[in-house]
Amino acid sequence: MSSPDFDFEEVLKRALERIDIGPHCSCADITMEVLRDHLDLRCPVVRHAASGFAGGVGGSGGPCGAFSAGLIALALAYAEKEQPEGCIAEPIEADVQAYWDAWIDTYGSIMCPDLSGYPSLRDEAAREDFAQSGGPDRCTARYIRFAAEQAAELVAASRAS
User: Fold this and answer.
1) Is 115 exposed, middle or buried (0-12, 13-18, 19+ CB in 10 A)?
2) Residue 13 burial (C-beta neighbours within 10 Å; 0-12, 13-18, 19+)
3) Which of 47, 70, 108, 158 suits 98 as a labelling partner, its CA being 20 to 30 A distant?
4) Would you say 77 and 39 are in contact if contact means Cβ atoms under 8 Å apart?
5) Mean pLDDT rounded to a whole number for the chain
6) Is 110 helix (H, G, I), strand (E, B) or coil?
7) What residues contact residue 5 under an 8 Å CB cut-off, 6+ apart?
8) CA–CA separation, 158 vs 6, rounded Å?
9) How far is 3 from 133, CA to CA, in rounded Å?
10) What is the per-residue pLDDT for 84?
11) What share of the chain is helix, strand, coil (3-state, %, to 5)?
């Protein structure tokens, strides 16, 4: 469930119009740009903070880029709201745990190979096969959407309190 004012399809459309999605734009880039737009994060280049998670940390099959971008956006939105000093791990912990729990309950794993079906997206042939098999559309419909909606919901609840 997402915040009532979050229209994923509309925000996704605006985000994709702003970035050059190219043949292999990652779920991390897209998720972060969607959340930057919807959460009105001030820094126009926040998606760069998530870009290294593409294909599960540089295509290596680590944690999903969409999942990781959602976590980064949560932290940035919290920082902009609270402008905390020092460590913010404790104040944001409940939201991070809720995000994790919702993801695991839905998908069972945060690892890119488990979600994408590809052990690695490091080489061009694997990325091309992933793209040709409809992988980017599946990731958008499932993981990017889920990450964006969950993060938006948690941020909305945090901002309301």
Assistant:
1) buried
2) exposed
3) 47
4) yes
5) 85
6) coil
7) 156
8) 15
9) 32
10) 66
11) 65, 0, 30
User: What count of other Cβ atoms lies within 10 Å of the Cβ of residue 62?
Assistant: 18
- Length, in residues, of the chain: 161
Position 22 scores a pLDDT of 63
What is the rounded distance in angstroms from the CA atom of residue 161 to the CA atom of residue 154? 11
Task: Tokens for 5, please give them.
Answer: 């004012």
Residue 17, pLDDT above cutoff 50: yes
Tokens, residue 117: 């079906």
H or E segment to which residue 138 belongs: helix 135-139
Q: Please name the residue that has the structure tokens 């605006």.
A: 14
One-letter amino acid of 95: D
Separation of alpha carbons 137 and 54, rounded Å: 15
